[in-house]
Angiotensin-converting enzyme (Plutella xylostella), 409 residues
Amino acid sequence: MGAGKVSFVIVQLFAFFTWHAIAQEYVRMGSNTNAAEAMQFLREYDREASGMCYRVTMSQWRFVTNITEYNRRRMLEELALNSKFERLSWRKAAAYDATRVSDVQSRRQLVKIVQGSRAALPEDKFNEIQQIITEMKEIYNAAKICPYGQKPYDSHLQRDSPFYPQSRQEPYDQTRSHSQDIYQPFGPGFPHETPENSNYCDMQLDPEISRILAHSRIESELVYVWKSFREQTGPKMKNRFMRYVQLANQAAVSTGYSDAGDQMRASYEDPSFRASLEEIYNQVAPLYKQLFTYVRRKLIQRYGERVVRPDGPIPAHLLGNMWAQNWKSIMDLVMPFPQAPNIDVTSEMLRQGFTPLRMFQMAEEFYTSMGMKPAPPEFWRGSMLARPAERSVQCTASAWDFCNRIDYR
Ligand SMILES: *[C@@H]1O[C@H](CO)[C@@H](O)[C@H](O)[C@H]1NC(C)=O
């Protein structure tokens, strides 16, 4: 091979990985400068991606509204097909030089396909990171803990302890009329709670653990379920997570970012993203600090200064939610003006015989009265508005877009 040919190869390599500033973000783009070809690719991609997204979303819908092993397998198959499609599309999109596309929308679409993806990884590593994500989700979803009140935790706590009766009188959310939704405190002395029972260590995040965090006011029980859930998830995920970070960073670097965080922030298309967030935080901080201090004071009144330090952070297990992200479940502890009228309309709605369907129809009337478009027929035909009695489903409220501009549920 002559020296001329070697330098030609080097020039080619550099041409393929040139760096271009697009929307103030650096992303590695290819060398194909044929804008018409790029536009043709985008038209095909739009059609194929919409079809792929419909299939994946439908398989996910079938699974969460009817949890069976068969539906789970079908969903995983569709997700695998989708990964293949994503990789293929990424390779096609990354071959174009988006700076040569004059149409702003198309240029942005091209960059979007390339910049958010991990498809820059070699195939084995791309499959590995997908597999790791699936495994981590399964560990999280399958985590089970034993009920509170057994060795080695608080075996001394008896039913007649002054703390026990309180949890039994805990008001539960009246809108959850389904019997299996009612929170029941676990502990020694209740039926079916001997370690011999096969269902004994069978408490899952949803519904049992979430319900305890929301409704129990026994600090030792709260800290027990919070820690036990972490013990059942964290150690099993640790090595997988570290490998995930490694692969995600590698994918980001191959796409033209400094690391995975840089890649994730790029999707906001704000070159001063950190500064913008800082500014918003500074606006909210004074209110947040007051709110935080107020809630901490109320929690000290309930649990005492040995549990909640008056000058420190609030322990996460006291806020009514596994991630301390939503504090609505401790409303009863922090509600100001207890003498103010109760605005909870649940009992009145029950008296009037409201059904889930009637609630959705009323919401529809409200939004259309403001001039918004009515929900499409697919919404009313396809949505699952109430928990079906005869099969296992995931009943958390969620909004679905089936990617075909018709079906929304
Ligand atoms: C639930 O899924 C199973 C397949 O596992 C299917 O046979 C059954 O008809 C589905 N039930 C409903 C109500 O869709």
